[in-house]
Design brief:
271 residues; alpha/beta; Rossmann fold; ProC C-terminal domain-like fold; 2 domains; 8-stranded mixed beta sheet; 8 strands; 57% helix; binds NADP nicotinamide-adenine-dinucleotide phosphate
């Protein structure tokens, strides 16, 4: 089976790594990028993969991954539409904001399309990917896609484009929310006199410990928080500052703002 990739930046490269990790030989991977510089870099990272034009990739592959920026997609559609209308094949697109109808309009409704919304931790195998299929996608396609994205972390199938916008705001943008908090703790630790390496280490180990405890415990996040919050203790002192600043409410508003933005982007791209 030949796997085609149009776009091989952050996301496309993670997908190529997953396919290689899943046992697909490099010679069966066909890639299209825009610049000679990327071709040269990628042929070093992924020795043995073939490089072709968008039209050739669409014609030669059995499954096609689309991993270009949404504003590039009209160019790509122009290059591949005729081939896919004549010979529908499974498309897996990671492009943000392009709904299933967008692909049906360009490629025809017989073309099986999966929308995937991964996040950046897919690059290290700890991502979370939301998946949405159109009517033409078969059960065996879904199984294949699930297995592939499982190489990159966890997955969940959703039923609507709107749910993909929600996933975008939660797990898609989510890593940045936590990097924001990690950065705050790292800064304070350094202000207290810890060297940058130790400050980073204690920040990450605290996060990892909280994560492991949350995963292994039967208790809710609220109960876990209460368990470290003794009356008049240090955690209570910290939490009272967070509460006074309405930090939890602001954090929730931030996620809703990301969701609203995802909806606006979707409506702009699907006019
Ligand atoms: N990064 C994320 O966290 C994330 C998460 C979820 C979804 N996404 C979505 O994934 C998609 C890709 O994002 P990315 O971060 O991987 O982008 P990226 O790193 O900028 O990569 C874009 C790729 O598209 C190629 N390309 C540009 N024009 C092309 C053309 N006309 N024909 C063929 N290939 C072309 C580029 O090639 P050159 O390098 O040669 O220009 C590059 O390989 C976007 O739609 C993004 O919204 C990203």
């Amino acid at each position: 089976m030949k796997l085609g990739f149009i776009g091989a930046g952050n996301m496309g490269s993670a997908l190529i790594s997953a396919c290689l990790g899943n046992g697909y030989p490099a010679k069966d991977l066909i890639v299209s990028v825009n610049t000679e510089a990327s071709r040269s870099r990628l042929s070093t990272c992924f020795a043995g993969v073939q490089f072709m034009s968008n039209q050739q990739v669409a014609a030669e592959c059995d499954v096609l991954f689309l991993a270009v920026k949404p504003f590039i997609m009209p160019i790509v559609m122009q290059d591949i539409a005729a081939t896919l209308q004549a010979h529908p094949k499974l498309i897996v697109s990671v492009a943000t904001g392009l709904m299933l109808d967008y692909y049906a309009e360009h490629l025809g409704s017989d073309c099986p399309v999966v929308r995937a919304m991964p996040n950046t931790p897919v690059q290290v195998g700890f991502g979370f990917t939301g998946l949405l299929a159109n009517q033409a996608v078969q059960a065996d396609h879904k199984e294949w896609v699930t297995q592939l994205f499982s190489q990159l972390g966890d997955t969940t199938w959703v039923q609507t484009d709107d749910a993909i916008d929600q996933i975008t705001a939660l797990s898609g943008s989510g890593p940045a929310y936590f990097f924001y908090l990690f950065d705050a703790m790292h800064q304070v630790a350094m202000d207290m006199g810890f060297d940058p390496k130790t400050a980073k280490h204690l920040t990450l180990k605290t996060v990892e410990g909280a994560l492991q405890l949350s995963e292994k415990s039967e208790q809710s996040f609220l109960q876990l928080r209460q368990a470290v919050t003794a009356k008049r203790g240090t955690t209570e002192a910290a939490l009272s500052v967070l509460e006074a600043g309405s930090v939890q409410y602001t954090f929730q508003k931030a996620i809703v703002a990301a969701y609203n933005r995802a909806r606006v982007i979707s409506s702009e791209h699907n006019k």
